[in-house]
């Protein structure tokens, strides 16, 4: 089965409600997540190799080897994680799903949104990406969508804010 093939869902799967069109985040999020991770892991591998060369002890090569294997694992894992992120807008709420092994589905009713943040760091700005953070009255709500194209994040922020105000006015 390829990554592009749709996953087989069991009837009544709570992570894939029927009739929803899921929107995906930008594939550039893979780069935004890999650059800092691989930079750190790469530097640790180089330091480990320098120490191994300086000491001449064969067992010290375990450390740079570990970091190289960690880098390879990140190269495999991060694209799969990014591919699993999606969001869907319904009439009364926004759904955000994440995860492959440990899956999460967050449902945020528009009337419960207090405010929305659009965040862009230096790397995400260079890639044309932004993150949208939704804040509700519940401190435990982790409602954020990373890796949105900047114009989509701004449009979504304005659209969700308008829907939230409309639902709040109806209370």
From TrEMBL:
Q: Tell me the domain of life.
A: Bacteria
Keywords associated with the record: Membrane, Transmembrane, Transmembrane helix
Under the heading Pfam families, the entry gives: bPH_2
InterPro entries linked:
YdbS-like_PH (IPR005182)
Where's the YdbS-like PH domain? Answer: 84-160
Any keyword Disulfide bond?
no
PANTHER family per the UniProt record, alphabetical:
TRANSMEMBRANE PROTEIN-RELATED, UPF0699 TRANSMEMBRANE PROTEIN YDBS
Full protein name: YdbS-like PH domain-containing protein
- Tell me which species this is from: Luteimicrobium xylanilyticum
Classification lineage:
Bacteria, Bacillati, Actinomycetota, Actinomycetes, Micrococcales
